[in-house]
Amino acid sequence: MAEPDFWGNKERAQKNVEEVSTLRGKVVPLQALERQIEDLPVLIELAREANDAASLAEVQKEYTAIQQGLADFELKMLLSGPNDRFNAFLTINSGAGGTESCDWADMLLRMYQRWMERHGFKSQVMDIQLGEEAGIKSCTLQVTGEFAFGNLATERGVHRLVRISPFDSNKRRHTSFAGVDVVPELPESAPIEINEADIEVDTFRSGGKGGQNVNKVETAVRIRHIPSGLVAACQNERSQQKNKVTAMRMLQAKLQQIEVDKLAAATAAAYGEKDDVSFGSQIRSYVFQPYQKVLDLRTGVETSNIAAVMDGEIDAFIQGKLRGLKREKGATDDE
Q: Which of 63, 71, 83, 68 is nearest to 22 (CA)?
């Protein structure tokens, strides 16, 4: 008699629980919206009978709440990809330009951390490489929360900054670039295998802002996947083995995302589309001088409130891209 597959059953049970939780998160808000919409005519009739400012204000408040609820529900329905509900690894890399780009990468890091705080996501620095004079050369965050990947995946690409450089004594205008990459944190049961012969593992001393996690031994781990050239690093744990396990999971996620991107690129080519599916595509410009504007080059969403954007108010850009993806999918389906 075959032994019961305890671990397999446990994983399937966990997956079922997650699926039920995801469905409940969509059904419950929909039911609440249906009740609000059904109650609105009654509220309007009561306001007509009362014929006073307070009753009219109550109707307007309820109508606005329904509109916002419908918009929120639409966005949740857009996050229906197989990995959208997972946690995410977000990596920011400074581009060419030395100190300027390192400072810009650090500004983007703060922008995303503020966005995460606003939406209740938790973040942890997995790896960080500081710039020689200022800012960061690169940083990888683990972002924890429902639909972290679905939201942040819209930010993949190159972000361009134009400003008067604070590092230039002649006050000249500089253009800087930084790349943002996002991959899902896959479950441990994900079918992504990596041949040990295809990787190089380096160890080094941990380091970071404020001296956090600085050790006297080489606990930090950097893994390079030789066939693809991909690199994943982790230094937040005090155990070298734990850092290696996390770095391997990050590498697995990157390799899977490459396959997803290849499929998306093939689909776009088949339908003659020119969608951004690569890490190197420029997606957004942030202009500080001579005028102020943040423009998403994919969707046309823009704002002149730079201070708010750099303080984490980037929902308009994320939602614009999500809705754009829906339109593109609809056009492809029609073909």
A: 83
DSSP H/E element including 73: helix 53-78
User: In 153-198, where does DSSP find H-type helix?
Assistant: none
C-alpha pair distances (Å), 141 with each of 132, 168, 184: 21, 30, 12
- Residue 30 · residue 73 · CB < 8 Å: yes
Helix (H) or strand (E) holding 282: strand 282-287
How far apart are the C-alpha atoms of 154 and 299, rounded to whole Å? 11
Contacts of 302 (CB under 8 A, 6+ apart): 293, 294, 295, 296
Report the distance separating Cα 333 and Cα 327, nearest Å.
10
Strands 199-204 and 88-94: unpaired
CA-based radius of gyration for the chain: 23
Print pLDDT tens along the chain (335 aa): 455 554 456 556 655 666 676 677 677 878 888 888 888 888 888 888 888 888 888 889 988 988 888 887 887 888 878 889 899 999 999 997 789 999 999 999 999 999 999 999 999 999 999 988 899 999 999 999 989 999 999 999 999 999 998 888 788 888 999 999 999 998 766 667 788 888 899 888 776 544 444 445 678 899 999 998 999 999 888 888 889 888 888 898 888 888 877 766 665 554 444 444 334 468 999 999 889 999 999 999 999 999 999 999 999 999 999 988 655 555 445 55
Sign of the Cα pseudo-torsion (203, 204, 208, 211, in order): positive
Tokens of 32: 């609440």
Cα 79 to chain center, whole Å?
A: 12
Q: Which two tokens stand for residue 159?
A: 């972000």
